[in-house]
Amino acid sequence: MSAPHTPVERSDFDQVIVPTFAPAAFIPVRGEGSRVWDQSGRELIDLTGGIAVNVLGHAHPALVQALTEQAGKLWHISNIFTNEPALRLAKKLVDATFAERAFFCNSGAEANEAAFKLARRYAHDVFGSEKYEIISAVNSFHGRTLFTVTVGGQPKYSDGFGPKIEGIKHVPYNDLEALKAAISDKTCAVVLEPIQGESGVLPAEQAYLEGARKLCDEHGALLIFDEVQTGLGRTGELFAYMHYGVTPDILTNAKSLGGGFPIGMMLTTDKVAQHFSVGTHGTTFGGNPLACAVAETVVDIVNTPEVLQGVRDRHERLKAGLLELGERYGVFSQVRGMGLLIGCVLNEAWKGRAREIFDAAEQEALMLLQAGPDVIRLAPSLVIEEADIVEGLARFERALAKLTKA
């Protein structure tokens, strides 16, 4: 019998947790589908999806069953042994994508760390030690480890931690000429998000990704797509690269893959994967049976024509509703994104006020996200019910009505 839980409240966060986050004033305690209940029993509509994580909403019966079944069998076995869920998951991902090999870890940062290390190791082995430069985009976000935060193009996240990892260049996003000017025979990899997520839900232009692929081929560099946020159905295709018809050499994903259970992955080709031989990279928990059993179920459900078409349909429904609200209340200059990764760009009069809108929405029992100070981001469950979209938009309208009146 388990011991009774010690009562906790939001103020405890400020006493016992390292202050790297500033969470909302309420504590969610239960979720079902796209609805969440807090400690007081208040019901909220969740359009955050745990920041593009809960692809099947909260407490999806198939995920609960997969986790419960695996929990009764095998939790952890280490990488001295392999396990059935990891092998099944890898086979399904390889069959569904360009890739021939998978590497499992625990987060998006770890997936990108593996990708950047692999790119450097590949270039070192094939071309020599001078080919180690990595080019990424200004305002990109690739994780919080020292390597990934240095590759990320936002100095506010990487400054103040001592000397940075060398050999990283940043160029403006969607600017092919800038990439052309920066790339050289010293470049081992170009890393891009098909949609820049954290910095404002900004999709890549078709010609930009096509051009990046061509430049990488010309210079013997690997093209890495960071699909930590865009992958696993979020955009209406299994992975965003499929929209563009541009194939990377390495792809990373995390958020959506476990539907809420922590797991990350890196996918790549046989040719590149061979340069991570035994002992060159590793992880204690990566590929553990619990995470992989859940992720396998997520892939089975999401990678179907019905669910992927459903994401595209929901995009149209949400976008139309958001454009209407933006027009009625004069707050958005643009609604952009793909699938169920949507950014409402605040107009000149509302610039810098995303947090105010976030707070006003919470007062109307609606959970939203920011993507910087000028963009409201929505990343709901891929299977969100029509009734929750309707009610979510109604609550958003109430929040905007109060704000604009004030």
UniProtKB/TrEMBL annotation:
One annotated GO molecular function: N2-acetyl-L-ornithine:2-oxoglutarate 5-aminotransferase activity
Keywords assigned by UniProt, alphabetized: Amino-acid biosynthesis, Aminotransferase, Arginine biosynthesis, Cytoplasm, Pyridoxal phosphate, Transferase
CC annotations in GO: cytoplasm
Subcellular location: Cytoplasm
Enzyme Commission code: 2.6.1.11
Sequence positions that bind pyridoxal 5'-phosphate: G108, A109, F141, D226, E227, V228, Q229, T284
Residues the record lists as N6-(pyridoxal phosphate)lysine modifications: K255
Residues binding N(2)-acetyl-L-ornithine: R144, T283
Principal subcellular localisation of the protein: cytoplasm
Gene3D superfamilies, per database record: Aspartate Aminotransferase, domain 1, Type I PLP-dependent aspartate aminotransferase-like (Major domain)
Cofactor note: Binds 1 pyridoxal phosphate per subunit.
Listed cofactors: pyridoxal 5'-phosphate
Pathway(s) annotated for this protein in UniProt: Amino-acid biosynthesis; L-arginine biosynthesis; N(2)-acetyl-L-ornithine from L-glutamate: step 4/4
Catalyzed chemical reaction(s): N(2)-acetyl-L-ornithine + 2-oxoglutarate = N-acetyl-L-glutamate 5-semialdehyde + L-glutamate
Enzyme class: transferase
Complex and partners: Homodimer.
Further remark: May also have succinyldiaminopimelate aminotransferase activity, thus carrying out the corresponding step in lysine biosynthesis.
Family to which this protein belongs: Belongs to the class-III pyridoxal-phosphate-dependent aminotransferase family. ArgD subfamily.
Protein name: Acetylornithine aminotransferase
